[in-house]
Design a protein that fits this description.
The protein has ten helices and seven strands. It has helices at 2-5, 10-14, 17-27, 51-61, 100-113, 132-143, 164-167, 173-179, 192-202, 237-247, and strands spanning 42-45, 120-125, 149-155, 158-159, 162-163, 183-188, 210-215. The strands form two sheets. Strands 1-2-3-7-6 form a five-stranded parallel sheet, sandwiched between helices. A two-stranded antiparallel sheet has the order 4-5.
Length: 248
């Protein structure tokens, strides 16, 4: 998809794939035949630059034909570089980093007022946690005891310009979330069983929001994309052949 489009964020997409697969094929209540189903759970891809990964999952789930994936970032396509609500299965426009958790808090408050049992899932980037708005929203979620919010941090340790700890240290990250009143779990973000176990544990928590810190590798699955080199670089023809052979 990204090679065909000539642009896109390959590394950030690959670090999130297993997390998204568990969400869309096991945890989230949704209906591809009725994307606007009122009782559905909600999902927000706050790290919107990883949209190619989400589009793959939506196509696999049946929201639109898989061949549409190759129109990524085309001017008249429903699959833009960041999620847009004109795409079936997308609940929130995102990609301006730092805003997703605030959207999730609003959705969660609405669900509480409507007395529904909907869950609001959100995937955050770790570099995104540099944004102050994330922590304002985190404080609000704990104040209102929003136990219908499940946040997942894609902890691949890189942001666009380098290692997160070199740019603005996040550690000790678990203790920061705990200090804001959240229940914190840690897991291997590439182990689908471990991700599912963490999500299932969140179902047992009452009276506070939950965050799963998912330890991942940026560019996971292709030997030469791991790390930050493919943060916003497109594979050339030879790299594409090599990548597809490794994945095959």
């Amino acid at each position: 998809m990204i090679a065909e489009a000539g642009s896109g964020h390959l590394g950030a997409s690959l670090s999130a794939l297993e997390i998204l697969a568990v969400l869309y094929f096991i945890k989230i209540r949704h209906d591809p035949r009725n994307p606007s189903w009122k009782e559905r759970d909600r999902f927000i891809l706050s790290k919107g630059h990883a949209a190619p990964a989400l589009y793959c999952l939506l196509a696999e789930a049946g929201y639109f034909p898989p061949e549409e994936l190759f129109r990524l970032r085309s001017l008249d396509s429903r699959l833009q570089g960041h999620p847009d609500t004109k795409t079936p299965g997308i609940d929130a426009m995102s990609g301006s980093l730092g805003q997703g958790l605030s959207i999730a808090v609003g959705m969660a408050l609405a669900a509480k007022l409507d007395r529904t049992n909907q869950k609001i899932y959100i995937l955050l980037g770790d570099g995104e946690l540099d944004e102050g708005q994330v922590w304002e929203a985190a404080l609000t979620a704990s104040h209102y005891r929003l136990d219908n919010v499940i946040a997942i941090v894609d902890r691949n340790q890189y942001q666009y310009t380098g290692n997160t700890e070199d740019i603005k240290s996040l550690e000790p990250l678990s203790e920061k979330w705990k200090a804001f009143g959240w229940e914190v779990l840690e897991t291997d973000g590439h182990d689908t069983d471990a991700v599912l176990q963490a999500l299932n544990m969140c179902d047992q928590i009452r009276g506070k929001p939950m965050v799963i810190i998912a330890k991942t590798t940026k560019g996971k699955g292709i030997s030469f994309t791991e790390g930050n080199e493919f943060s916003n670089r497109v594979p050339n023809s030879e790299e594409l052949k090599r990548a597809l052979s490794e994945l095959g």
